[in-house]
Each structure stands twice: as C-alpha cells, then as structure tokens.
Amino acid sequence: MPTAPTGTSVVRAINARAALRLLLDLGPLSRPEIAAHLAVSKPTASHLLMQLRDSGLVKSEGNRDGAIGRAAELFSVNEKAAYTAAVDVTPERIATVVVDLTGRKVGEFALPTPEGDVSDPTLQVHEALSGACAPIGVDPSDLRRVVIGIQGAIDPTSDRLRFAAHLPGWQRAGLTAALQERIGAPVDIENDVNLVTIAERAHGVATENDSFAVLWVSDGIGMGLMFGGRVHRGLTGGAGEISDLPLPGAPVGSLTNEFGASGMQALAGAPALGRVLAEHGFDAATPVEAVADAVAADGDAASAALDEIASRLALGLSAVVAIVDPDLIVLAGDFALAGGERLRSLVQHHLHAAVVARPPVLLSALDENPVLDGALRLALERVQDEVLSTVSGGQSKPAGDDD
C-alpha cells in the first residue's frame, strides 16, 4: 500500500491526483491548461506531469497541431496502465467486455452456456474473460478488477448467490472468493438490475434523479433502488428482489403455482403476462413478441390484455411506492420495452389511481446491453479510484504494483 502523504506532500498528492483526474475526464491537455485548471504554476504542473509520467500513468501525445508560435506538448492518460472487465451472466451465455483505463473498449467475447449446463462457473467466467482479453494479449489475471452482473444477489455474510436457482452451479458458498482465486484478479458480483440502475443514473432517463426505482420486466421480474445517488443493496444483498413480493391473488413462497412461481413473479413475470396475452388472442412464440403484437393492434382484446398487464405491474409498484416513495420509476427489460409508450401510460394510470404519491413512470432509454453498461461504469469508477489512490505526494508507485 502507498504511504499516506504528510505535510506539504499532502498538497502535492492532491494536485497530482487532480491532474490525473483532469486527464481522465477531459483527455489530452498541455502543461498550461493543467496549470490553469488546477490554479497552480506552470513549473508545478510540469512537476506533476513528470511524476505521473514516471509512474507510468501519463504519456506524451506529442505537440498540438495548428498552434501559432511554440507548439504545446500534450499529455494524456496511459490507457494501458490498467484494464478492467465487465461480465453479464444469464442462463444462455456469459458476455464479457474489457476496457482500458480511459474506458475504451478493447475486447469482448460471449461464451454460450447451454441449458442445464452445470460446469464450474469459475472455469466458464475465466474462459469468457480469456476470450475478451485475447485481442490485447493480456491474461485475465492482469485485469485490475472484474465486475460480474448476475440475475441474483450475493449474501455478504456467506458469499453465496441467492435468488438464482435458474443458474446451475452458481449456488455455492465462497463464490466470490473462488472466482478471484481462479481469475487472479479482484471480483465484485452485483445484481443485474442494480447495474441497470447505475446505467440509468449515468446516462439514462434518471440522470436528474438521486432517488428512484427501476422495475425490470422480463422472464424474471426485479427491481433496482437508488437512494441519494447510491444503490441500495440491503443487509443480505437482496433489496429489490421484488419477484417474491406477496401480492393479493398470488401464491406465497411455500405455495407456488404450477410453474413454480410465487408472489409478483407469479402475477407479473413475463411468463405469466404471456398467458394473459394468450387468453386475449395474442399467442406468439414469446411473451415479448405477444405484447408487441398487442401494442400494434387495435380493438377491445388488445386494450383488455394491456390493461390487465398494467394493473398487475402497478399492484406490485404500489407497495414499493407506499414504502419507498421514489422520485421516479423506470420501466426496463425486454417485455416492458416491447410494451412501449402504450403500456407505460397504462401502468402510470393504474399506479396513480392506487397511491397517494404519484411518481412519474418512464421507459428506459438505454441502448444495447444495460447490464454490461452498468457493470463497466461501476468497474471503471472503482479502478480509476484505485489508480488515483496510488498517487502519493512524491513518486507514485506503478499502477500495476500491488505490493
């Protein structure tokens, strides 16, 4: 660990970290620009840059083109100083993305996981990471940190994955420790909807909200909660596991329905909603396709089906609103997105009719894979903070040196 700076070295450490943060946030800058941003002298800026360059965290980008007079030398973050990875685990595949210290994607890989496969998850994740690391010629053990998004929650007291019976082989005590030992790098396991919540706060529809809830409607149903700009995980990591929420008309956990579901999952998971759609004549290959057909259709059958679906979702949300009182509710997941604006407006209508607090209900606007998006943001934030913490008031140790 780096030695805590003392005396005047405290100021030097703060300035050096601030200079590195500037380069991470703004890209290549010259000495005068860094001096101006930090309100320090140019000689001080030069010293900071020399310190960061000697530590391997900063590199020269050459001179700025097109400048009048003496061309200013530009400096940028050494993107190769640290790599980090995000992993999205589903029953069908393990998707992986690797980024450098600046957040630029440098590798990706998806490992298929056939249904019923009970292979060792540590070996599967290592294989997926190896595939993503191959383009840059590094080993998974060279990664600074790995964040794994998964459809479940890690109990911090036992390091065991809960709420994930659909993922064979993953329910083992000491899961995080086993993954870290196999990969050779620090590992964080995070609930997938929590990661979507992070992505929504970063650049989705909740950028202006510090406290909100994300309802994920897909094969499974889940929720992410953010309070005061921080994800709320709860004592055992299970905050937001709304699938087991007891609701009127739904079987409790000990009395699951014929499909093995209980609580809100039995009423409002995509399989249950698909059955509602089929009863109204919309019987497609998947519930997502069926709700899209209903949204595109006119007539009483489509209206009745969508109204029933919205009332079921609003029933679960009403309990959340009564307790949490969020600023905003975001609908996400493939089923909710397929329902689009027509379903969103119905959910909001039913919710506002049931509760005193009336938070707006919005559709997620995130593109591509929001789980990987959130995992990358969380991983990169932690790695950049770790790298910044290595910078001392004198010489900083190399970013990859963990001694």
Characterization of this structure:
The protein contains twelve helices and 15 strands. It folds into three domains: 8-77, Winged helix-like DNA-binding domain superfamily/Winged helix DNA-binding domain (Arc Repressor Mutant, subunit A); 81-194 and 370-384, Nucleotidyltransferase, domain 5 (2-Layer Sandwich), CATH 3.30.420; 207-363, Nucleotidyltransferase, domain 5, CATH 3.30.420.40. 41% of the residues lie in helices and 19% in strands. The protein has a five-stranded mixed sheet with strand order 6-5-4-7-10. The protein has a five-stranded mixed sheet with strand order 13-12-11-14-15, sandwiched between helices. Strand 11 (212-217) and strand 12 form a beta hairpin. With 403 residues, it is an alpha/beta fold. The protein is elongated.
User: What is the fold-level CATH name, i.e. the topology of the largest domain?
Assistant: Nucleotidyltransferase, domain 5
Low-confidence stretches: none
Number of domains: 3
The largest sheet is:
5 strands, mixed
Gross CATH architecture of the largest domain? 2-Layer Sandwich
Top CATH class of the largest domain: Alpha Beta
Strand content: 15-25%
Q: Identify the CATH homologous superfamily of the largest domain.
A: ATPase, nucleotide binding domain
Number of helices: 12
State the secondary-structure class. alpha/beta
Write the layout of secondary structure elements.
Blueprint (H helix, E strand, L loop, with lengths): L7 H19 L2 E2 H8 L3 H13 L3 E6 L9 E5 L5 E7 L3 E8 L4 E8 L8 H13 L11 E6 L2 E3 L4 E3 L12 H9 L3 E5 H12 L8 E6 L3 E7 L2 E2 L31 H6 L1 H10 L7 H10 L3 H25 L4 E4 L1 H21 L6 E3 L6 H20 L14
Parallel strand pairs: 4-7, 7-10, 11-14, 14-15
Antiparallel strand pairs: 1-3, 2-3, 4-5, 5-6, 8-9, 11-12, 12-13
